[in-house]
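User: Could you walk me through two proteins back to back? I'd like the raw sequence and the structure tokens for each, with a short line separating them so I can tell where one ends and the next begins.

Assistant: Of course. Protein one, sequence then structure:
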Amino acid sequence: MRQKDAALQQAVEHLSIGDTAHAVHLLREQGRVREVPERADRIVDIAREYASRPEGTLVISPDNASRVELNQVIRGELRDRGTVVGTNWEYRVLVARSELNSEDRKWAARYEVGDVLQYTRGSKELGITPLGYASVVSVDATQNRLTVERQDGMQVSYDPKRLSGITAYAEMPRQFAEGDRLQFTSNIRELGVANRQLGTIERASGDEIRVRLDGKETRSVTFYPEQMRHFDHGYAVTSHSSQGLTADRVLINVEVSAHRDLINQRFAYVAVSRAAHDVKLYTDDSARLSRDLSRDVSKTSALEMKPAKEPGMFFQNQHAERNQTENPSTERLPATLYATSLPNDVVLADVRFAEKQRGGGISSTEIARDLAFDHLRRTEAGPSQVSLVERYAAEVAEAVRRNPERTPEQHVAK
């Protein structure tokens, strides 16, 4: 366990076996639960507590909207205290429209002009490469057609029902300056950074950002925010984005009245277990805390379990709908064919990445997705080759899960 505080470790142990009520009781006894009924007051309290000791502190919140609000208020508090200094530079980052589910993505009316779409498998018919981007320029809800502008400036129209594996993003303005905390929101192999990785901005300008990455080894990376836009403020993160992270101190926003679908046993365990030394829970209703955090997310109704195909999460269903331009013959080719085409150092790097993510509590499905995204981003694989990349990534993640005792070199030898 990552906990260095004995009392905190005891609470996390109870959370790990689903004994959430007793874990909350222990956290109360330890003085780690604070009730602040009003949302605005609670966010300010969290921001001030963060700013009082920012080093090694992470804020976790259940949803994206509260994450954004917390980041803004925390950043304002740090600017007032002189922790974040220098010129504010505004960049347009890509924020996933996570509210769109698999059914929503089939309907043009659910998109908005200005949305940025990323096509996991691409489309030969539309001239979009795997992991390519396009921006929505018009929506025809009556005919269920989207018109998008490709990166080369050409516009194409299509029925969104015909394409799966699409991630929709909203372009959002964000201000950054020297001293800001930053989180990467995608794997960027060129920079050697992983999805969810945190860092601190060392230098910012109109066209360049330099970030010192968190970790035992001191390392900095530089990127161009007009080209790589998968990043955001990193003071507050969602519980999903916190997986694999560790912080000395964690402040948790538990708004039970607003997020009944997100406040559950999994949220409680993931959020509290990120902390090594200290944790504080801020809630709007302390009386409901034990009951709501004890909600078992695994007890899902049959109706809720029906949507099995999630665009972009194509590893979860091997019979997921394929792009109409894909060559079905690749479905029968072994994933080892792709692996043998890669240099050994690339496969070794993939195994090491999978081991690191697995050690941080990331699921095999998410590891496989991130690996495949990374490979497709770096290669010019056509739609007919995507299934090979998917299965290679899934096999790497599964091998690491099944054989944790093997070294990366032993995995590659197998």
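----
Protein two, same layout:
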Amino acid sequence: MAEFILSAFADEAAEGLDEQLEALAQENIRMIELRGVDGVNCSELGVEDAVRIHKKLEAHHVTLSALGSPYGKIGIRDSFDEHFDKFARSMEVCKVLECSRIRMFSFYIPQGEEPEKYLLVNGHIDAWEPGVTCNATGDGTIITLAEQLAKLKGKIKRSIYFVCWNGHEIAESAGSTWWVDKHWDDLQKNCIGGINIDSTGMLHAVQYECTASREVMDFTKAKIKEVLGEDTNVLPLNKFGDQSFFGIGITSIVGRMGMSDEYIEKTHGANLGWWNHTIKDGMDKVDRKNLKKDLDVAAAIICDYVNVPVLPCDFTRTCADAKKSLRDIMAKADPYIEMESIYEGFSALEQKIARINDFRAELADCSMTDNRVKLLNTLLLKLSRCLTWVLYTYTDRFEQNSYAYTPAARAIPMLA
């Protein structure tokens, strides 16, 4: 037969420890979760108090199941300093009381926030020396964003992870690939998108250039216009850099001040500057004004992404591009290969996306913890998880395409 050991908060029977121990004896309970002693909360006890209490517990053959502390009963953003000083003292009290557990609380989350959801702001550490614009400026942009946004953390409603990957050049994005493999389940459930920051603040750059997952192209274009006043031609994203998150299905944005078409033609395709990946990539290749523009756009995109109640994902363009690609493939394919049902499936999804967008508009001003908003955001993330690997990869969900692998740039790569 199973045996159960009962433990109790005895301070609900009496304030005094002697009376508490008497109440425990009457109920034949030999274990206590110590919370209040003689009217004093356990978090206020010192080592001398613990020595006295321990003698009384031993005399009554009573042991501790835990120290019933109030630690964690503060806001998640409140100062933890005073809390921690008391906690450290309680650790010493536990040693005297031969107690191995402290009961804690999980802090208060501000209403209307989702700290478990996060945006992944990332870039790479470069293997080339000196590597100023590839990618010291990008890493500096990431660090500056982290430093400045930390000052506004009381206004940020979802979390932001700032990461600089190793193994970008010499190991084909090994750092970000490892991260996906190691944190797959968490990314699948909680990552709302990614912002990749690379080669910011380049000399000679004259216009903002951007690629993004189709569902956030309109959102990204609007933010660039808001910050720079430029009507940027945002293009569909493909596999380059540390875009290691297509398989798992995470929406992504990449942008920076870029070179003009004339410059690229003149330098025979040097879209990152003629000095890229050479010993000439020094501090003289940085334009401070361009660096500021890149920083401002990234900050605007990040702040909106983590604070808007409904995620800024519209899959209308995704469906339209998929249908166009299917029409092109079907026109050239063997007529005995049946693809009409796939096309019809995207048409049906297109109609549902229109309804989803109606809901997005209706819920735009609601709290992100409103159950309707949470349900809609869950649906948008599921769509991203399902469609991204199909439309952006030339492999299965759990593998990686090579850097700039040409077939992966086609819409519906596995069919094209």
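DSSP finds twelve helices and eleven strands in the chain.

Let me know if you want the two compared in more detail.
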